[in-house]
């Protein structure tokens, strides 16, 4: 039986923090591509509003209209088209998310509404060189919502997303009224973020060292993150500890009382002997309050069935750094988490 995610006040309650001067993303040639992606997303938004399914033909038409060329010309590829679908999801939630939240009797009641959006989108079956090398698997919107609930985000919060992708986690923090700090190393996706979140400065640092790179005046109170599971910037081999490098650096940036919510591979668990020592070291700086695996079916529409894990760490002293919450098992789907109960 999988335990509910602890929807509890963070320790102690955080007050509003200041966002310092993040380095804005420079204007690059990819800005033209990003603009076209968002143009396609706005056309796809109209389809989502009608409840129409976005199949390959609909998606191709939107991309060709936005780029003025077909994919065979090299102006765009199908991974770019999937980014447009994700951007359309961001735009949909920005427009209708507040009404959806008002209609939902509980946080769990939001999940069927989000599942409906997902069902209208195509399954992501193709990837690009950039998406492969940087392991760009965006967070499914239902899982992103669960992560945002686990973050206990309020309008006084400043939320950092170190690997922001196309903004699927960020838009839910925005929906909760929080201020945003966005970072995305991938150039194409960083360009899309600047189009979708024009009021937010987007940086392009290596998120494995986010604490070293961010301006000293930037103080988030919540971190939502879905780091690469085993990829590292400028390293041409898999790094098994890549995700925890990202987690450790982001945790170091949080002040006491902050909360970090991370999505990692299912095996990156405190009770996995391969990772116990790493989590023990993490607890020198923060306390693991929840960790549970999720069946890979959650990621099926994003082109993979790899199992994942949601882990919540509070920036608070651990009474015993070698002691962890018991593992609640593997959730077969998101509703099993019984969020909000």
Q: Gap between N and C termini, in Å?
A: 14 Å
Structural class: alpha/beta
Q: What is the helix content?
A: 25-40%
How much of the polypeptide forms β-strand, as a percent range? 5-15%
Total number of beta strands: 8
Radius of gyration: 19 Å
What integer is the average pLDDT?
Answer: 86
Give a quick account of the main beta sheet: strands, pairing sense, barrel closure.
Answer: 8 strands, mixed
Strand order of the largest sheet: 3-2-1-4-5-7-6-8
What gross morphology would you assign?
A: globular
The string of secondary-structure elements, in order, is HHHHHHEHEHEHEHEHEEE
Number of helices: 11
* Low-pLDDT segments: 13-28, 131-135, 230-239
Strand and helix layout:
Blueprint: H1 30-50, H2 56-67, H3 78-103, H4 110-119, H5 129-133, H6 141-150, E1 158-161, H7 168-175, E2 179-183, H8 187-196, E3 202-203, H9 210-213, E4 222-225, H10 242-253, E5 259-265, H11 276-282, E6 287-294, E7 308-314, E8 330-331
Parallel strand pairs: 1-2, 1-4, 2-3, 4-5, 6-8
Antiparallel strand pairs: 5-7, 6-7
Helix pairs in contact: 1-2, 1-3, 1-8, 3-7, 6-7
């Amino acid at each position: 039986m999988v335990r509910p995610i602890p929807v509890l006040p963070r320790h102690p309650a955080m007050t509003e923090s200041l966002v310092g001067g993040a380095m804005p993303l420079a204007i690059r040639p990819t800005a033209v591509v990003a603009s076209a992606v968002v143009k396609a997303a706005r056309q796809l938004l109209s389809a989502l509003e009608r409840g129409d399914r976005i199949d390959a033909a609909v998606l191709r038409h939107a991309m060709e209209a936005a780029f003025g060329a077909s994919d065979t010309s090299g102006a765009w590829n199908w991974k770019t088209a999937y980014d447009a679908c994700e951007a359309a999801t961001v735009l949909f939630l920005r427009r209708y998310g507040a009404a959806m939240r008002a209609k939902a009797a509980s946080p769990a009641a939001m999940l069927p509404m989000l599942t409906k959006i997902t069902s209208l989108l195509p399954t992501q079956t193709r990837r690009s060189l950039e998406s492969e090398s940087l392991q760009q698997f965006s967070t499914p919107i239902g899982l992103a919502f669960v992560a945002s609930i686990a973050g206990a985000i309020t309008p006084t919060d400043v939320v950092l997303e170190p690997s922001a992708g196309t903004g699927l986690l960020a838009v839910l923090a925005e929906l909760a009224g929080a201020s945003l700090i966005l970072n995305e190393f991938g150039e194409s996706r960083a360009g899309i973020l600047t189009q979708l979140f024009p009021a937010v400065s987007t940086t392009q640092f290596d998120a494995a060292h986010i604490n070293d790179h961010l301006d000293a005046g930037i103080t988030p109170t919540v971190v939502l993150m879905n780091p690469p599971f085993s990829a590292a910037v400028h390293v041409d081999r898999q790094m098994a500890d890549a995700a925890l490098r990202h987690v450790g650096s982001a945790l170091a940036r949080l002040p006491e009382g902050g909360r970090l919510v991370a999505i990692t591979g299912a095996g990156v668990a405190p009770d996995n002997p391969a990772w116990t020592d790493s989590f023990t070291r993490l607890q020198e700086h923060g306390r693991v309050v929840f960790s549970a695996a999720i069946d890979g079916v959650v990621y099926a529409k994003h082109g993979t069935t790899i199992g994942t894990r949601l882990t919540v760490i509070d920036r608070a002293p651990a009474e015993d750094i070698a002691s962890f919450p018991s593992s609640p098992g593997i959730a077969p789907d998101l509703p099993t988490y019984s969020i909000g109960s």
